[in-house]
Amino acid sequence: MNLPQASSASPAAPATVPTPLVRPRLTFIGTGYLGATYAICFAELGYEVLGVDVDAQKIASLASGRVPIHEPGLDEILRRNVAAGRLRFTTDYAEAAEFGDVHFICVGTPQRADGLGADLTYVEAAVTSLVPHLSRKALIVGKSTVPVGTAAWVEQLVGKHVPTGVEVEVAWSPEFLQEGFAVEDVLRPNRLVFGVRSAWAHQMLLAAHKGVFDLATTEDREVPVVISDFATAELVKHAANAFLATKISFINAMAEICEASGADVSQLARAIGYDDRIGKKFLRAGVGFGGACLPKDIRAFQARAQEIGAGEALRFLHEVDLINQRRRTRVVQLAADLLDRPYGPAGPDLTGFRIAVLGATFKPATDDVRDSPALAITRKLARHGAQVALYDPKGMANAQREQPDLEYADSMVDAVTDADLVCVLTAWEEFRYADPKALAGVARGLRVIDGLNCLDQPLWTAAGWEYRGMGRPNPA
Length: 476
Ligand SMILES: NC(=O)c1ccc[n+]([C@@H]2O[C@H](COP(=O)([O-])OP(=O)(O)OC[C@H]3O[C@@H](n4cnc5c(N)ncnc54)[C@H](O)[C@@H]3O)[C@@H](O)[C@H]2O)c1
Hints:
Elements: E1 26-29, H1 33-44, E2 49-52, H2 56-63, H3 74-83, E3 87-90, H4 93-99, E4 102-105, H5 121-130, E5 138-142, H6 150-161, E6 168-172, H7 182-187, E7 192-195, H8 199-208, H9 210-218, E8 225-228, H10 230-261, H11 265-273, H12 294-307, H13 315-338, E9 354-358, H14 373-383, E10 387-391, H15 396-402, E11 407-408, H16 412-416, E12 421-424, H17 429-432, H18 436-440, E13 447-450, H19 457-462, E14 466-468
Parallel strand pairs: 1-2, 1-4, 2-3, 4-5, 5-6, 7-8, 9-10, 9-12, 10-11, 12-13, 13-14
Helix pairs in contact: 1-3, 5-6, 10-12, 10-13, 12-13, 13-14
Bound molecules: nicotinamide-adenine-dinucleotide (NAD).
């Protein structure tokens, strides 16, 4: 077997291997935020695509041309490609096996209920549902974020379940798309990582991404490709997310220092961000990171490191997690301070106050509320007795599903009406550019917590609001 070496620029495949297929047919197994976006965008790139999921409702929605998530631009591309006949959806694994040459595994890998590690049961179910139906040579490509060692384990699973005489190979290609920018990230990735064990798998992956390379060529761009072994490919994703989480927690730790010393973390971040070695991105202090990736990935990374005897190397990620959690508590402390309530060992008693929470999603431009700091803080405020009115431009349905007991408002103004305190916890443009004078006309108390340091503080202060930011001194 010809094991490709790590490379970093050219997508060229080894010349000695015959081209397997110019345009393989692709399946994307698991049509959530990752898989649906991929299926839709790869159909747009000209591939014949089949999306597969166990959720019949999701499949029916996609098949009818309706994206079940909020992702800017995706709806229109879905409708176009379903109409063109390039894109179909199914819950039938036999159909998927018959259709596909390359099968991308895009199912969830959430945190296990009994610990910090990743729950791989969905990966196992996807592989063991597909493989017994395969009847010709195929490539299974993991895209889900997984602990190091998973690809080798998937290979073993395949070996156990594959019909006699059928050859199936495995590869791993971690995914870096960001919700809210997912269409762009899939069509124009800033890099591709292929973890492969054979030249055939390498070449199949190149063929499966030919549309991405062709688009780049027409736009005079290059897409860097890193070819690696399985372990490196798996680790790339955990390492990238560990770095990003650490950067966010770093600036939030600086926010804590600023709070204790009277300094302003926004100015501090600007000043250090001018250094190219540090950079401005991901350097905004606030309520911390959330979503379906960073929190569970840094925990799974630590758990796996412990299992393989390298736990000490990632002990700092525990601190990163703790700093992140403390930011959520900080908002409750600020609320108690603004509402003049003592903060005892059980936290403040906020009974009798109405608090408007603006934002439920873990960031703007998505409807995803999984491990959202905004929702977690809302829960805390409600648990401390406050009457909370929550509003989010796109995340209401998901928030209501996750937290049915909270009170939901129909609009920003409805939420703020009669509120004693307003908390901005997701940096949606609607909130960032809200008119503080108009909101002052409907609120009962003019107090605002800017959980993302995203408001124009002088403007809010001039409109009469008592303002609190994260890691910033109170305005005079
Ligand atoms: N969401 C992101 O921005 C993002 C970015 C990079 C990587 N990832 C990784 O991608 C993976 C998927 O994330 P997501 O956010 O799309 O999750 P998701 O929960 O939105 O989607 C997972 C989908 O898999 C389906 N599924 C579960 N079991 C199945 C099975 N046996 N067969 C077929 N389908 C099945 C579910 O019904 C669901 O639709 C995770 O490992 C995640 O860490 C996500």
